[in-house]
Write a structure and sequence with these properties.
Organism: Flavobacterium aquatile LMG 4008 = ATCC 11947
Shape: globular
Helix content: under 10%
Strand content: over 45%
Structural class: mainly beta
CATH architecture: Beta Barrel
Number of strands: 22
Order of helices and strands: HHHEEEEEEEEEEEEEEEEEEEEEHE
Pfam family, one: Alginate_exp
CATH class: Mainly Beta
Largest sheet: 18 strands, antiparallel, barrel
Radius of gyration: 23 Å
Protein name: Alginate export domain-containing protein
CATH topology: Porin
């Protein structure tokens, strides 16, 4: 722990004289460092972010990273079915990258990741992965305006609302894929075409493996500044998995996903509506799955604390009948960890939820939010699943639909664009279905997070 805070102090010293506030992206390879190319003021931070290789500065190296420290205490984990840890545990994550650009035609991005779990009872490979190559890819740009790019290698993916493909930010280790992608950019259109294998995390040093048991391919197109609709996403995703875990058993899965999303994220009133349909085969069973989701927010700028009220709701299909020739369980593929609230207890399969929230802007650096979520099973003939689609409880043990409700509070202190602190707590009140299926205890989760980006 002492070494952790020493590292933060050293990093803070390096950027103390930096004037530019970088807008750090979720995908760090998208960070814009153009400011440093033209800035005449030499600082330690500029020397870290922009290292020219030739005289005209068209070939350069940029470096950066992230340090995250989290403390969690979970009472009655897995609703009392897991071993209770009264002392809590600490998760640390380190990310460090180097980004080489040769003019505008070639790029190589390399990133290391170290994730560690201290005091955690039986940590998995996502929580504890001491050191591995997280990203290593190259770009070849075929057009001078950076409109057509071929990207190959290990890379992060994130699309749309992150309901289906995300970097898995909440768990300790972020998710990466091995594969190839073609990127097309124009003024109001961005389109990706890709073929990928998700990386298998392992608990030893530099041993994360190529995954030949799961495949992802497809295309994702974003249309901006569309009359009436503002922005539209249109996508197709193909998915193959050797061993898929459903309430009806473990089987081979080939699934096709088509979807569209209409969204707006500027101004006082924002919205995000999405509709998805899935078809294909799970062994000899026909897939007929779907989801409809909505997320609307409105900010009252002229009221004290500038409250933002929000309402989310989703209907996500589950299996209609056991022992028939079809399966209706929705597969969320690779969703973000905190899909419903902060605790990430339940995944988006066989579910109906109502999720109101309210956020307050205490000042320019501090925000406080409260959200409530109530969950029901969509179908009585299907169970409930974790965010990674691991079956938590089978639907054969109860005919009750109500899963439970959770209320959560979050306070975020954005000290600077580099350093942030977060405190959160969640109480999940167990419903009749979980009480019928397991120990049925309420879950209380508390967490503290410090995150530093550079």
């Amino acid at each position: 722990m002492k070494r952790f805070f020493t590292l933060i102090i050293l990093l803070n010293y390096c950027i103390v004289n930096a004037q530019q506030k970088i807008a750090f992206k979720s995908l760090r390879y998208d960070d814009d460092i153009n400011y440093f190319k033209n800035d005449s003021v030499e600082t330690d931070y500029k020397r870290l972010k922009f290292i020219p290789v030739n005289k005209d500065k068209t070939t350069y190296i940029s470096t950066g990273g992230e340090v995250r420290l989290q403390y969690f205490n979970i009472q009655n984990e897995d609703w009392g079915d897991a071993s209770n840890d009264n002392d809590g545990f600490i998760l640390t994550r380190y990310l460090l990258y180097a980004d080489f650009h040769a003019n505008s035609s070639f790029r190589f991005f390399f990133q290391l990741q170290s994730s560690n779990a201290n005091g955690r009872i039986n940590p998995n490979s996502i929580e504890n992965n001491p050191l591995d190559i997280h990203q290593a890819f190259f770009d070849v740009n075929f057009l001078s305006q950076k409109q057509l790019i071929l990207r190959a290698g290990r890379q992060e993916l994130s699309y749309g609302s992150q309901r289906l493909i995300a970097v898995r930010e909440l768990p300790n280790s972020r998710l990466a894929f091995d594969g190839i992608k073609i990127i097309w950019n124009s003024k109001n259109i961005k389109s990706d075409l890709f073929y990928m294998h998700p990386v298998v995390n392992r608990e030893k040093i530099v041993d994360d493996a190529f995954n030949n048991e799961t495949k992802l391919w497809g295309s994702y197109t974003v249309l901006n500044n569309v009359p009436l609709f503002n922005n539209i996403d249109i996508y197709y995703l193909g998915f193959w998995r050797k061993n898929a875990d459903f309430d009806e058993g473990t089987r081979k899965e080939l699934r096709h996903t088509i979807g569209t999303r209409v969204w707006k994220n500027k101004g006082n009133f924002n919205y995000d509506f999405e509709a998805v349909y899935q078809f294909g085969k799970v062994e000899n069973l026909n897939i007929k799955a779907w989801t409809i989701s909505s997320n609307t927010t409105y900010q009252f700028e002229n009221i004290i604390l500038k409250p933002t009220i929000g309402l989310k709701s989703e209907i996500i299909s589950g299996n209609k009948k056991y022992d028939d020739n079809s399966i209706e369980t929705f597969n969320p593929l690779f969703p973000k960890g905190a899909y419903f609230g902060l605790a990430a207890l339940i995944g988006p399969s066989n579910l109906f939820d109502i999720h109101p929230s309210i956020d307050f802007e205490i000042n320019s650096k501090i925000n406080f939010s409260i959200d409530y979520d109530a969950f029901w099973r969509y179908s009585k003939n299907d169970g409930i699943y974790a965010p990674n689609q691991r079956l938590i409880y089978s639907g054969t043990n109860s005919k009750e639909k109500f899963i439970g409700s959770q209320i959560a509070g979050l306070i975020v202190y954005q000290y600077s664009n580099h350093l942030s602190f977060k405190a959160e707590t969640t109480w999940f009140h167990t419903g009749k279905f979980i009480k019928d299926s397991g120990s049925g205890k309420d879950i209380v989760l508390s967490g503290l997070t410090m995150q530093y980006k550079f």
